[in-house]
Amino acid sequence: MKRIAIVGAMHEELRALLDAMPDERPVLRAGREFWVGHLAGQEVVVVLSRIGKVAAATTAALLLSEFDVSRIVFTGTAGGLAPGVNVGDVVVADALLQHDMDASPLFPRHEVPLYGRARFATDATMSAGLAQASRTMLADLGAPQARVHCGLVVSGDRFVSERAENDALCARLPDALAVEMEGAALAQVCHDFGVPFAVVRTVSDRADDHAHVDFNRFVAEVASRYTLGLVQHYLDKLPAP
Ligand code: ADE
Q: pLDDT tens for residues 142-178?
């Protein structure tokens, strides 16, 4: 049996997903509860990664080594970087990069040493399915003005909450759409295991001086409905197991 893993970074998202599972059962590993069961008719394992790159990498490695997982979807929120990536929009990554990786001058800035690359591509079929599911979810939730963006998402162990840091990131990585704290770690682990993955993020803030206020409001009021809606639409469109 091959399961689809759904990984969330926040309790609010996990709660909404678990409430929609008829038969979830927890399996404890490394202090995490991996919830095995069904969602929208598919075999899934749902887990809270916690926050940051190390937590995400640990979670991904456990999923891939112990839970018979065929692919991983990472959900959560992100701060908008590119102009026009606004609060309430959705970003589907086509590639991920660690913006805080810097082994220069030994290796070019952002390159992961000994991998010969800075960017890790997501699975194109999964990403297209998630983009379509996000559009359907936004229409269902009555947010037709919200947009779905596809492109580069950057990750680092920092919550970006100052205009100056946002400006520096945009200057260094002009094609980055959004910033978060886990996706590129998941991407590197999935690359190591040769397993397809995708990252979908709802934009909770603009990674600027108001980011923490906007983020808390978005997580409390909106994030879990977005995540549940888009994950259900995505799974609905997959062939029956
Ligand atoms: N996730 C959501 N908003 C973020 C931000 N501003 N920086 C890093 N990760 C985020």
A: 888 899 999 999 999 999 999 999 999 999 999 999 9
- Rounded to the nearest angstrom, the distance between the alpha carbon of 165 and the centre of ligand 1 is 12
**24 has catalytic annotation:** no
**Residues 142-172, buried b or exposed e (16+ Cβ, 10 A)?**
eeeebbbbbebbbbbeebbbeeebbeebbee
* In a domain? residue 123: yes
Catalytic residue among 111, 205, 208, 214: 205
- Which CATH number is 96's domain given? 3.40.50.1580
- C-alpha 108/C-alpha 117 separation (Å) is 9
Q: How confident is the model over 190-220, as pLDDT tens digits?
A: 999 999 999 999 999 999 898 888 888 878 7
Report how far residue 14's alpha carbon sits from residue 48's, in angstroms, rounded to the nearest whole number. Answer: 6
Number of domains in the chain: 1
Residue 221: pLDDT over 90: no
* Catalytic-residue membership of 111: no
- Calpha distance 202→75 (Å, rounded): 8
Tally of CA atoms within 13 A in the half-sphere of 195 that contains its CB:
24
- State which ligand 1 atom lies nearest to the alpha carbon of 181: 9
| SS3 state of residue 160 | coil
> How far, in Å, from the CA of 133 to the mean position of ligand 1?
23
Find tokens 């909770």 and name the residue.
204
Q: What's the residue count for the chain?
A: 241
pTM of the complete model: 0.96
